[in-house]
Amino acid sequence: MTKFDEATQAIRVEEGVYDVCLDPGYSIGGPLNGGYLMAVLLRAAVDASPHDHPVSTTTQFLRAPRPGPARVVVEQMKAGRTAAFARARLVQDDAPQLESLITTATLNDVQPIYTDKSATGMPAMEDCVKLPDPKPESGMTLNAQMEMRFDPPTIGWLHGRPTGRPEARAYFRMAEPQDPDPYVIALAVDALPPVVFSAGHRGWAPTVDLTWHLRALPTPGWLTLLGSGRLVADGWFDEEVEVWDSAGRLVAQSRQLARVGRG
Hints:
The chain is built from three helices and 13 strands; from the N terminus they run αββαββββββαβββββ. By secondary structure, the chain is mostly beta strands.
């Protein structure tokens, strides 16, 4: 079991109820990363399902839970031969923190009838760059859990040179050797810096709602994350992320609605 597996572990205490312990190692300077929190929910939802994989997840981020004990409550809505539907809540101090609608199914390793090619190419790995390590006092512990190599123009904001477009592109893998699985993918779809940074905005950009789809089980190796946005207006922005595996296959798609950062 890897550190990430332990950090997302959900222990069943009764039917539909799971104890979890939210790990402080996935902080983004105070709040915990939304992808990490979704992975915790999905551990419980898949355990309670007759199917193996979370193929569609929609999560609303009601509050910002703190590290420490919490519970996941899973309500089964319908279970069929090909898909099951459930509602899952992350509860802390008797208050719901996240609410998810989760569809589970069992994906097979089959050749697609049709598959698109990546619309945006990435530079070679050696031409991509890391973000600087955050200062210890920043509380940014998430960076230590993963390795990312960024397409240089998309982090120009770091040096006061944003491209003016909401975008982010990077190679991704866990810092501890681990083949990507659906729970790693849940983290990956929310691992990029907010695309609004590249449009010239900074500060914590809290996610309000995030939907993502698992399209295939990834092959081992680096993942490629391609993030973009369509509209930044009135304090809101959208972010879409495609996740491609090391074999060049599209394995996940996400879209979130978030608030433009303050500060």
